[in-house]
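In the current project phase, the collection of sequences with tokenised folds has grown. A representative record is quoted in full directly below:
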Amino acid sequence: MVKFSDPTLDPVFAALADATRRQVLERLGDGALSVTELAQPHAMSLTGFMKHLAVLEAAGLVSRTKEGRVVRVELTAGPMQAAAGWIARYEAFWNPRLDALGRYLYHQEEVNPSWPAPDRSTRSAPRSGSSGTTRSPRTKSGPPGPSRKR
């Protein structure tokens, strides 16, 4: 199997794969914040949060500056632009194919309407044509016994 890797895009996509890191980047879109401000909404230790920042920094998505005792984090969007360009190239490849598939399926539905249109108003399972009822299977075990007190 051939593995394609791009030394600049691999860390970016790896960093974007985590929801916490995506939330951090979204918050940084409004401007630089301190590490404490960034970590505050996440239910994790500061040490755990710093590992997320290290991944973002290694991917080149954020940069840190220290002002006295406060470490501020700022978004650097260059690597995301490269990732967006890579995605856009494949979007141009897939969109015409997906559009053609949609046209084909629409045409098939028009030509051969053998399947009834699904009724999306109900969520229940389809009913059988039989008027009989089926009993639920008997359970092999009896009622629960007394519980142990500790």
Observations:
- The longest strand covers residues 62-67.
- The domain at 9-76 is CATH 1.10.10.10 (Arc Repressor Mutant, subunit A).
- The helical segments are 9-16, 19-28, 35-39, 46-58, 78-111.
